[in-house]
Write a structure and sequence with these properties.
The structure is a homodimer.
Chain A (H helix, E strand, L loop, with lengths): L5 H19 L6 E2 L4 E2 L2 E7 L6 H16 L4 E6 L1 H10 L3 H8 L7 E6 L2 E4 L15 E10 L8 E9 L3 H16 L2 H7 L3 E2 L9 E2 L1 H20 L3 E2 L5 E3 H7 L1 H4 L5 E5 L2 E5 L4 H10 L9 E5 L2 E3 L15 E11 L4 H18 L5 E6 L9 H18 L4 E3 L9 E7 L5 E10 L2 H4 L4 E2 L5 E2 L2 E10 H11 L13 E5 L2 H17 L4 E3 L6 H10 L4 E5 L1 H6 L1 E6 L6 E4 H12 L9
Parallel strand pairs in A: 11-15, 18-19, 25-26, 25-27
Antiparallel strand pairs in A: 1-3, 2-3, 3-8, 4-5, 5-6, 7-8, 9-10, 12-14, 13-14, 15-17, 16-17, 17-24, 18-20, 20-21, 21-24, 22-23, 27-28, 28-29
């Protein structure tokens, strides 16, 4: 099988699927759009009178297997443009004609034929349908506009997973299963963390447990900030458009902003904190002794996303970032970036993200600032990354026009990569706001600004992290640390309440479950809620001042003196701060 | 002197001032508007061609004293309406004519005459100008629209303090002086707590020190919430107008809201959190076992105030409250209110507010909800207040149409009263949102909602508290706890840094002042910044591991072993929680 590469196999399998659909529904005006290879498989866009169901997907899979068994040779045919148009018109494939018409005049049109089925295609393909492994699975059907344009008709897009062999397919399907179980929208609901309402698309309502996680993340970042000498500020959210003209957001970002007219002035709800921080820097007189000056801001931001595009916590219209701006001398860049890389790596590891990818994007063709500054800045970034001892990738020319950028991707428990952190140098905003500080020679000079975020949007981070831990949060950030269950209320409730009170006073989030329900029922509920500890107290525990401790995921409980339990909790709670920074 | 009451004296002194002005500027078309008694004195509105200056106020005071010495008898004159109009027309007092014309036909017009000066006035007055104590001071001149209508001409309003005797006047002037020193706008700037920008009227920018106070207040309330079993939630800020129609805000509060059109839907930035909490309650199924359910929310609110009305932190367009909503059974009201009163009194005392006034506002004529519910609710509030053992005042008929209310006023260090806390019962919102929970008989019943805030707007509270403590914050909430000053950098800087590191690790906000400035200069700066402690370290301190401690406001320092200093700090920091709740 290995004589064809995976992309070719996937591509030919897309044709295979189209052929099967055409065979199964011959009288439904089937027309095919495009059928590209994607990560882990392929899809094909289909227009037909019949609406495909889950069961239809099984039927199509069966027919695909039949065609493989028919061992149809796959042959390339070349036509002239006019010839191709005539051919596909006869076949009723109007979408293909649209594609052909967009090709340059005189170009040869390449098609591939297998049995009765012929498709417009550049290739390459396998030689025969029998070359295709039976390692595909049709996953689901979604709506998709023809050519991605919402003014066009909606087609049915059939998604499929496709691999070299059945083992790989099985692994992938297991991954999909696991990802589905961990879907943060599903977990968010089950664990009562957050939900959405019609009146606020893309704007989560965090219930008490979700808000606990949210606030713990903010507190976590505050501890990190304290260590690295960041100063938190609080800035307004609704600001006059004058400011957005100065910052350039009005010119470049207007479509994503919410406007409101007040007193015959136009105001916008802030999509970013940076302009506020520029104003603050400009408001005071700073000297080189005050630099690097680091303003942190958990201000709420609003950015318009299409109602159809918002999804769970990963695409929202409103969020807070662990946002900060560092005002710095151009000669201070390297040291600051090294500190940032240290901070980023320590924190990501603390959250259990094992693979961390670092990308450095350098100057694009169109850029602000002179080459000398860019040289200095890029050089400083490279040296800082070299010194931090981590591998990194250079994306030549991929920086923003106002400065080079480092972005950091992490992989989660299912090996999916997410970009979280960004470190963006900016030579432009200090210009626009005419910022300056006094250097050691008493001259007024312009600072460089670093925009940086480690977690990024807290909302999105919670979504990613929730899937990463599958809803079973580490002790320090768990919405509830423990539930105490008395064996029976009549004899053990007082003891349970007293224990609760003691743990509560030490700062833990604990409650007593004193409902008249069975131990089995309570155990299942506590496991389902993924609470780190269930603490059962009965006669024995009252007698020797102990608890029967069952950690989340464990099959059995363990008896433990209360003093030891407290030490255990204290120890676990130290994780509020990464070990390296304690 | 005591034969006339203070109001009469103030009123007659207003006439005295008007007479003096008329005498001093006879050729400036002087016209008088109204001259009422106000708290601590009086004012008079004057229209004239001459613009009064600070120096003019001195001249007027001199002339007022002359008139007192002239011992002019003050006599009441009664005229018919027509007669009065003719008279004041002759005098050129058009504003008085406007006033007279608004009186009912046939009413006798009362005037008072002293020497050449005659004024329209109901009285009463003293008998002679010599009855007036020379215990007044003209304070300042401000612009004021005639009859408070901005479409009318602007008059000059001359403000005066006026008392029974010179001692009282002196005390009041001292108070004014003190209030000016404590003005939170002035202190906010001096202590680098917050500032304002043109692009965001009424929207403070909290600098790092101000943000520290802000966050400490939030953390303080979170500790209180934890104790009283409140659950914090995080809710969106931009919500569809549908919601504001349901809540009634669109009908009653539209003028104060900011709107934005998105995707052809109308959205408003939230002025209050309550509708979000109603949605949250409606989203889940609750039973009587879950009640009282307390949602707390530090969500940022936006309420339009006229650009001219915003001032410092006390009148802003954006703020957060220590806002919470309690969902409760009508039979649970009394117990909950008692808890609330306990919480309020403990916290206000903790902030050092000594006098606490409680007002209970009962059902107005036009009201929502039946009399039985109102009876129950008012009765519960009264019983709760009785049980809490504090005096309270009943404001009959002063409640909102949707429920009775308790408001709490506190007096600050200068004995000024501010309303901070409110406890508002609401029978209306649960109706509008069709809320219900399952009672112990498995019936679906409607809860009552309590809106409550203890500090109210955090912004406003910071303004009030800043003036109350005159910028010298208690240790636990102070933006900086201590500054360490080495006697000389060459010998003592390492020791200073080591001490700083130790205190920093224990959670304190400390820094080392290692600038090349004199000890005297540093001392003055630390005093001016009102930092609780200055810690000086030199040879002696290095030798015996001590510090020379100077507390804010103290004239002298005191030597203290570092271990004792740490104990002291630890002890002071316990005030993060009121003693009663530790």
């Amino acid at each position: 099988m290995a004589k064809f590469d995976l992309d070719t196999i996937r591509h030919s399998s897309a044709h295979l699927m189209a052929q099967a659909i055409a065979r199964l529904w011959p009288d439904t005006n089937v027309q095919f759009g495009v059928g590209p290879v994607i990560e882990n498989g392929f899809y094909y866009d289909v227009e037909m009178d019949h609406k495909l169901t889950e069961e239809d997907l099984k039927k199509i899979e069966g027919e695909m297997k039949n065609i493989i068994k028919e061992k149809l040779p796959i042959e390339r045919k070349v036509m002239k443009k006019e010839e191709a148009i005539t051919f596909f018109k006869k076949e009723g494939q109007d979408l293909k004609i649209e594609l052909i018409e967009s090709f340059p005049e005189g170009e040869e049109i390449s098609c591939y034929q297998q049995g009765e089925f012929i498709d417009l295609c550049r290739g390459p393909h396998v030689e025969s349908t029998r070359d295709l492994p039976m390692a595909f699975k049709l996953l689901h059907v979604a709506g998709a506009y023809w050519r991605g344009d919402e003014k066009n008709q909606m087609l049915q897009r059939v998604y499929a997973a496709c691999f070299q062999d059945k083992k790989e397919l099985k692994e992938h399907l297991h991954f999909l299963e696991e990802a589905k179980k961990r879907d943060h929208r599903k977990l968010g609901k089950e664990l009562e963390l957050f939900h959405f309402e019609q009146v606020a698309p893309g704007s989560p309502f965090f219930m008490p447990k979700g808000a606990t996680i949210y606030n713990e993340l903010v507190e976590f970042m505050r501890r990190i900030y304290r260590h690295y000498d960041y100063k938190e500020v609080i800035t307004p959210q609704v600001l006059d458009s004058d400011l957005w003209h100065t910052s350039g957001h009005y010119e470049h970002y207007k479509e994503n902003m919410y406007f409101s007219r007040i007193d015959e002035r136009e105001y916008a709800v802030k999509p970013m904190n940076c302009p506020c921080h520029m104003l603050m820097f400009a408001h005071y007189k700073y000297s080189y002794r005050d630099l690097p000056l680091r303003y942190a801001d958990f201000g709420r931001l609003h950015r318009y996303e299409k109602a159809g595009a918002v999804s769970g916590l990963t695409r929202v219209r409103t969020f807070c970032q662990d946002d900060a701006h560092v005002f710095i001398d151009v000669n201070g860049i390297q040291e600051e970036i090294q500190k940032l890389m240290e901070m980023f790596f320590i924190c990501y590891k603390h959250f259990g993200f094992k693979n961390i990818k670092v990308n450095l994007s350098t100057r694009p063709e169109k850029k602000a600032g002179d080459d000398e500054t860019w040289d200095k800045a890029e050089d400083a970034l490279k040296k800082a990354l070299d010194n931090s001892g981590h591998e990194y990738f250079i994306k030549e020319g991929d920086g923003a026009f106002y400065g080079p950028k480092i972005d950091v991707e992490i992989s989660d428990a299912l090996n999916r990569y997410y970009q979280l952190g960004t470190i963006q140098l900016d030579f432009q905003l200090p210009e626009r706001f005419n910022l300056s500080y006094t250097n050691s020679e008493s001259e007024e000079v312009r600072p460089v600004v670093i925009h940086r975020a480690l977690l990024g949007s807290l909302e999105r981070f919670i979504g990613v992290y929730l899937e990463h831990v599958g809803g079973a949060f580490p002790f320090w950030i768990a919405p509830e640390h423990a539930v105490i269950v008395p064996v029976n209320n009549a004899n053990h409730l007082d003891f349970a309440n007293k224990l609760k009170e003691e743990l509560f006073r030490e700062g833990y989030r604990v409650r007593v479950d004193d409902r008249n329900e069975s131990m089995g029922y309570k155990t299942r509920q506590i496991q389902k809620a993924k609470i780190p500890f269930m603490l059962v107290v009965g006669d024995k525990e009252m007698e020797d001042l102990s608890v029967s401790v069952r950690a989340y995921g464990d099959k059995f409980s363990k008896s433990m003196p209360i003093t030891e339990l407290k030490e255990k909790f204290h120890h676990l709670n130290l994780d509020k701060m990464p070990e390296e920074l304690r």
